[in-house]
């Protein structure tokens, strides 16, 4: 009797913010793990999987083919490395990464001969909850119509639509996880968190005031990055009820940004022994877009019902972990 086939998981964008947190979670599990990014990723410590780091430019169709052609699971975490606002300024510069990579993935997998002994490859895409456009004043559960209002969200939706068309055609099993606001500097992260919450933590550690572009009542679903990594693992483990649609991934909390920034100030004060820095309102910059001022609520219950996943980390715990990771370490005195 032959041994069971070892599945191959390809992580595209493995050196990025979410990818560098997810990769160590997957490396703990037996199997074959391919970590693909523009720069070669380190092999996670204590890996149980057979890990193959690959440095590749994923705007090159041939490079995508080498990365995914034999994969059983593809985790598509690729985004243009510039600021998320860059698509508004230069969409032609970001489209080859944000959309073109998915186009190559589905074309490569569609050309693969079907196998009687295994299902079509599973492709899980990291989307954004703001793809719907103008967010409603109630929790989003994934049933809302899509009308994206920014180029970033239009490109995310275009990539997701490519995946869903391929899934309906039966050449892949496609799942899109639309993420809420992801935050946190995990000790395992290989890339810095450039999001607003961790940016404010860095400012507070520097002793600078925390600035808001509104009165602080704008609501966000703030989800710790390690919980997001576990959501992708849950999608891999229980795909059957997920395939063919998108799912909202978030904490299920509705945190006012004024309260979030206040919690940041308190956490940094507790860690440093300094007074909390002030939280102030300033005039929005010209680069602000409509989504900066919209409330974003997430109802993660459908995904939880399908997979058993839930966001375990409270806002304060995630902020405290990030502060501890970013806190400057004292320089040890030299031994005489």
Structure description:
The protein has 336 residues and is of the alpha/beta class. It contains eleven helices and 13 strands. The chain has helices at 17-27, 61-68, 86-89, 91-98, 100-110, 151-168, 196-205, 225-237, 257-272, 301-307, 315-326, and strands at residues 8-12, 32-37, 50-55, 73-76, 122-128, 173-179, 181-183, 210-212, 219-220, 222-224, 245-249, 255-256, 279-281. A seven-stranded parallel β-sheet has the order 3-2-1-4-5-6-11, sandwiched between helices. The protein has a two-stranded parallel ribbon with strand order 7-10. It has a two-stranded parallel ribbon with strand order 8-13. Strand 5, helix 6 and strand 6 (173-179) form a beta-alpha-beta unit. The longest helix is centred in the middle third of the chain and has 18 residues, at 151-168. The termini are far apart. The model is unreliable at 331-336 (pLDDT under 50).
State the end-to-end CA separation.
64 Å
Largest sheet: 7 strands, parallel
Radius of gyration: 20 Å
Taken as a percent bin, the fraction of beta residues is 15-25%
Question: Which whole number gives the mean pLDDT?
Answer: 90
Overall strand count = 13
Coarse morphology: globular
Helix content: 25-40%
Q: Secondary-structure element sequence?
A: EHEEHEHHHEHEEHEEEHEEHEHH
Please tally the helical runs, counting DSSP H or I stretches of 4 or more residues. Answer: 11
Low-confidence stretches: 331-336
Overall SS class? alpha/beta
Strand order of the largest sheet: 3-2-1-4-5-6-11
């Amino acid at each position: 009797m032959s041994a069971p086939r070892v599945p191959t998981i390809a992580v595209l964008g493995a050196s990025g913010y979410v990818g560098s947190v997810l990769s160590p979670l997957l490396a703990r599990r037996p199997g074959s793990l391919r970590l693909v990014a523009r720069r070669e990723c380190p092999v996670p410590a204590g890996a149980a999987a057979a890990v193959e780091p690959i440095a590749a430019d994923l705007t090159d169709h041939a490079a995508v083919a080498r990365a995914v052609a034999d994969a059983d699971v593809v985790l598509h975490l690729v985004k243009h490395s510039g600021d998320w606002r860059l698509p508004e300024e230069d969409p032609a510069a970001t489209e080859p990464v944000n959309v073109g990579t998915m186009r190559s993935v589905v074309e490569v997998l569609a050309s693969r001969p079907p196998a009687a002994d295994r299902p079509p490859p599973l492709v899980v895409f990291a989307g954004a909850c703001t793809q719907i456009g103008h967010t409603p004043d109630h929790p989003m559960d994934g049933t809302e119509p899509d009308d994206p209002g920014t180029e970033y969200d239009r490109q995310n939706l275009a990539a997701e639509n490519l995946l869903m068309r391929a899934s309906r055609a039966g050449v892949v099993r496609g799942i899109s996880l639309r993420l809420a606001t992801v935050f946190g500097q995990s000790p395992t992260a290989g890339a810095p968190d450039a999001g607003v919450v961790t940016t404010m933590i860095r400012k507070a550690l520097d002793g600078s005031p925390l600035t808001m572009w509104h009165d602080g009542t704008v609501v966000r679903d703030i989800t710790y990055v390690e919980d997001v990594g576990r959501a992708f693992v849950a999608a891999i483990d229980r795909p059957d009820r997920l395939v063919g649609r998108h799912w909202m991934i978030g904490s299920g909390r509705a945190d006012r940004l004024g309260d979030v920034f206040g919690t940041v100030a308190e956490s940094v004060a507790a860690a440093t022994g300094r007074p909390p820095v002030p939280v102030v309102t300033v005039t929005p910059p010209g680069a602000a877009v409509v989504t900066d001022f919209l409330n974003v609520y997430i109802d993660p219950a459908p995904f939880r019902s399908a997979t058993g996943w839930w966001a375990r980390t409270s806002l304060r715990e995630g902020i405290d972990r990030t502060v501890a990771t970013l806190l400057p370490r004292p320089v040890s005195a030299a031994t005489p």
